[in-house]
Design brief:
2 copies of one chain form a homodimer.
Chain A lengths: L13 H9 L16 E3 L6 E10 L10 H19 L2 E11 L4 H17 L3 E9 L3 E10 L15 E5 L4 H10 L6 H12 L5 H8 L7 E4 L3 H12 L2 E5 L14 H9 L6 E6 L4 H10 L4 E8 L3 E5 L5 E2 L3 H9 L1
Parallel strand pairs in A: 3-4, 8-11
Antiparallel strand pairs in A: 2-5, 3-5, 6-9, 6-10, 7-9, 8-10, 11-12
Helix pairs in contact in A: 2-3, 2-6, 4-5, 6-9
Chain lengths: 332, 332
């Protein structure tokens, strides 16, 4: 699966390296795994293939010198999170790696973190590519979903409840600590940090929701709730009212001041929770699905026919939230 | 399909950029294309999915400042070449792009080159990811193939003929010209250069070979014939005898001295021709398949039970070829 051109310095140990760290006993998901021009998958009869790709670049998606084991986990987790948001069952993935050099310790740790998560979801590494270059990781992930059961962004309807899995904001709080935007107690940072480094893709919840008979809209929150929710509103041509004080803050963020709680739950980033909608008549079914997936869910608002996003507090009073300003702030 | 973490500076125009250059009228291959957490493919009943991924990094796989239109072509071509080597029919691809900035001229040219080739093969862009970072392109490509028809590296058998599509060495000759390893007439460089910048994936030939009733081994030659052929020999646990003077040199290389012709046909790079094997009884069938694919093929040797790779000249006389030394040379 090489695409090496003569411009490239040969990574002399490339084949040994692949064998040593990335070739494993086969789990049997694929007809043909690593080692040929292509991998071969035999899709289950009647099922559709869900596909997502993410490119993570050092200094942009993760700090230079990031812990390789956690990075291996996170690189796959953000892709599995996309499958979760579609309701698909993970099957396989490919890995393209650009590495400044072949550091055995780094490769050992990276592959260990990646495969620990892959094994948890029976997701097989079926192929890839390695090259020397700036550290970058491109994973493409494949899942299966029954026709008509995908959780699409265009399926939100006026009157639907708006739901969030898990908690929001701790990853953003950890980043604020690292960046020294705010002074964080070391214990608070230690509590928040795993949410930034080792997100949990909500695969079981996505699958449980997609198995429900009624269509739901869903996506995974990677860039902050407000920005990501807007994609559902745009695709479904609806609006929403968000109960800002119902948003479940992560355990570290929960101890911070109200203004920060609101800001980091609404416009954090790296949450990798699911945001989804469901008819109000389906509340019990949603709660049962979440229970079967062992994943907490919280109802945080409603979908409206009126376009735009409105904010209310616990008392139902309208709030003005300058989310645009936060986006700017968090980005610069 | 984002995986942006808060470490990332938001690429403010990312969504506009995707819409403008990469979102197109649907060709209908996918159930769901760009714009959700995952794309959805509905595999044809009974068919297997062939998957390959390649990561191209600036300064390694292409020169800094490379022509964007040709780069768009080449990025997809090297992936389609992997489908060709498997005998699969192209269906769709994903594109992950790391860009130093959003340069409209570059994006326009890159997408034009990429889509021109994609359209030729009815291969639909179904999803992707964009980020700021060092220029890098990761494409993952999906094709369809009937079970048992894939051209696998482990299918070579003693007594098989060894075949090559098209011609070899012109891409390497162009590189030698750019690098000033050798002094090339401008007309010779102009003749050779398209083979380096705009390779032709042998999709039709691969599909025609995979439709033949008898199993064949195949791969695409990206790192030089000798090195790549070794993968077939290893996977099939066989050896080979190569008629060095039967190797078809490209039109530019054909005018060079014998020693250079031999070296660049045997250990060039970026050829993206198919190297394949077939029983001697299938010669007419292979030639008919190549004719139907409008692709020249040349018989260049035989597969042997004895391990290792042997070289002979036109008279059948054994040749000593220090290919290892060339590899070293071309790589450093």
């Amino acid at each position: 699966m090489q695409a090496r051109s003569p411009v490239e310095w040969p990574m002399l140990s490339e084949f040994d390296l692949i064998k040593r760290y990335f070739r494993r006993a086969r789990t049997g998901n694929a007809v043909l795994g690593i080692g040929d021009d292509c991998a071969l998958l035999a899709p289950s009869p009647g099922m559709q293939t869900a596909i997502s790709t993410d490119l993570l670049v050092e200094g942009r998606h993760f700090f230079a010198g990031a812990d390789a084991r956690m990075l291996g986990h996170k690189s796959l987790a953000v892709n599995l999170s996309d499958l979760a948001a579609m309701g698909a069952k993970p099957v396989a993935f490919t890995l393209a790696l650009s590495l400044p050099g072949a550091d055995p310790e780094w490769l050992e740790a990276f592959s260990t973190g990646m495969f620990a998560l892959a094994d948890l979801h029976d997701c097989e590494l079926i192929g890839g590519d390695t090259t020397r270059g700036p550290l970058a990781i491109c994973i493409t992930v494949f899942g299966e979903i029954a026709p008509g059961h995908a959780l699409r962004r265009d399926a939100a309807r006026a009157g639907h409840d708006l739901w969030i899995s898990g908690t929001l904001g701790d990853a953003r709080l950890a980043l604020a600590g690292y960046w020294k935007e705010i002074a964080l107690d070391p214990e608070v940072l230690a509590l928040a940090a795993p949410r930034m480094h080792q997100p949990t893709p909500r695969v079981e919840l996505g699958r449980a929701l997609s198995a429900l008979p009624i269509g739901h809209a869903a996506l995974d929150i990677s860039d902050g709730l407000v920005g990501d929710l807007q994609h559902i509103l745009d695709a479904s041509k609806v609006g929403a009212t968000l109960d800002v004080d119902a948003l479940p803050a992560g355990p570290a963020l929960a101890g911070q001041a109200l203004a920060l709680r609101r800001r980091f739950t609404l416009a954090g980033g790296d949450d990798y929770e699911l945001c989804f909608t469901a008819p109000a008549s389906q509340r019990d079914a949603v709660i049962a699905a979440a229970g079967s997936a062992n994943t907490p869910v919280t109802r945080v608002g409603t979908i409206d026919a009126q376009p735009g996003l409105r904010f209310v507090d616990a008392a139902g009073k309208a709030l003005e939230m300058d989310v645009q300003g936060w986006d700017h702030f968090s980005g610069e």
